[in-house]
């Protein structure tokens, strides 16, 4: 059955790959971006997750066009990498505001409709950095690790209503964000990956597609690493 799907941060990279794979399975997919721009094949709505009013407006639009959101994928994220002694408080709080508090706002809004439907899928895109840590990314790691505790708490809270909550934790993935890394940093990260390469967005999207599928109805509170083995043991 075609479901109403919303991918927060779905206009490019991992989010776009997720949107494409879910749409290929027959779902009605909407994506958000800060400017409301995105591929023509999807309903594209503007949404800055740091603004609660914009989240409400985005859900209102999607619900009017596609019906209540049955699958929410939260992919919006920023980085402000700095070593601790060079990191400003604004660098830290802005990263948490987007990556973690934004996820809280989107999940809370989606849960309303899912509770009424007595079904739903919440999927949060975290990071291998949340599991293994990374120098210069304490703010990003904290925000992405926070998603794991948040998701597992929601899994316990919402499970009796048929709502699953899971986390996909990618490693270094070929996106606009990672293309900005200096070449030497890129090579240093790959050197730590047992599979010896970075991920492609479709490989992350495949894991998201699975946990959002009917076949994953008995999986909740899981953290699924798609990282080439870089964070194994965590």
UniProtKB/TrEMBL annotation:
An example Gene Ontology biological process: fatty acid elongation
Any single GO molecular-function term of the entry would be:
oxidoreductase activity, acting on the CH-OH group of donors, NAD or NADP as acceptor
Gene name in the database record: fabG
Can you tell me which family this protein belongs to?
Belongs to the short-chain dehydrogenases/reductases (SDR) family.
Which controlled-vocabulary keywords does the entry list?
A: Oxidoreductase
Species source reads Streptacidiphilus fuscans
Q: Does the keyword Cytoplasm apply?
A: no
> What is one Pfam family matched by this protein?
adh_short_C2
* Entries under PROSITE patterns matching the protein: ADH_SHORT
Return the protein name.
3-oxoacyl-ACP reductase FabG
Entry superkingdom: Bacteria
Keyword Oxidoreductase recorded = yes
Q: PANTHER family per the record?
A: 3-OXOACYL-[ACYL-CARRIER-PROTEIN] REDUCTASE FABG, SHORT-CHAIN DEHYDROGENASES/REDUCTASES FAMILY MEMBER
Q: Which residues form the Ketoreductase domain?
A: 3-173
